[in-house]
Amino acid sequence: MIQTLELFGGIGAPRKAFVNLGIDIKAIDYVEIDEKAVRSYNAMFKKYIEYSTQTVVGYNLKPDILIHGSPCQDFSIAGHQKGANEGSGTRSSLMWETLNIIKQMGLWKPRVVIWENVKNVLSKHMVHNFNKYLEEMEKMGYTSSYKILNAMDFGLPQQRERVFTISCLDGSLFNFETLERKHMRNIKEFLEDTEEEKYIVTQPSMLKKIGLKDGSFGGRVEIIKDHCTTITTKQMRCPNSGVIDLKDGRYRYLTERECWRLQGYSDMDFFNALKVHPGKEGKLNGTLYKQAGNSIPIPILESIFRQILQTWNIDIPKVS
Fold this sequence. Notes:
alpha/beta; DNA Methylase, Chain A, domain 2; 2 domains; six-stranded mixed beta sheet; 9 helices
């Protein structure tokens, strides 16, 4: 049985990907400091052990696959590129705790370590931290490869580019070129038929930015046609994931459920999370938007896990 460890686990995209593949895993642990994300995780995966809010500092465990998506805010342009220098105290600097955890494991280490983050980690302002991460992984015996992957290339109509770094302990390099990709699905499959008042764009500051062809980062709001832009933690702001043209002079935001769907979650996953985070009637549910925006697109993880398991000669059942 595959043993996993999810650090900065959010609402459980890695576990959901394994579930979709029909792979039985043993999650040695799931570590997440956001109590609301933990509640959604527990609601979605009821038959597994419930977890409580935890920090990664000083943790010591032994999984086969370690997945970490350390907070990206301080790498991103939107987060003002505060950086992740070790000891800086920024949220993104928690990436170094992952290295500390692996070092504490001694001779036994995870066979594969997967790190996902925003593509700005490769920018001239941030790449020194990225390179240091690769160097530290190499010192521990890992060979690493990385690539910017777009959710659109894995079936989701969402323009979302993220850096995936995969480090292998057996000396091999993960081949991103052989990942199974899928044609982008029609966004109409993901949209609800709603004109509910709370989703209608009414703020003048947002309306004046809709459909602008020019503008700096955060200066325009895209009109969704065949795909949306990156699912963000908030929709009632600029930039966001785009808006739907209702064809009568009005526009609406993506709904919470649409955002979950566009990250690869099922409606059952969404409704399980909604039960523990019902929100306020007539208001956008900020918790569920945030959880979608912070997640990893599940089809990308499915493709990565499928390829890893195939190299380990593990059969992947056909899931209907």
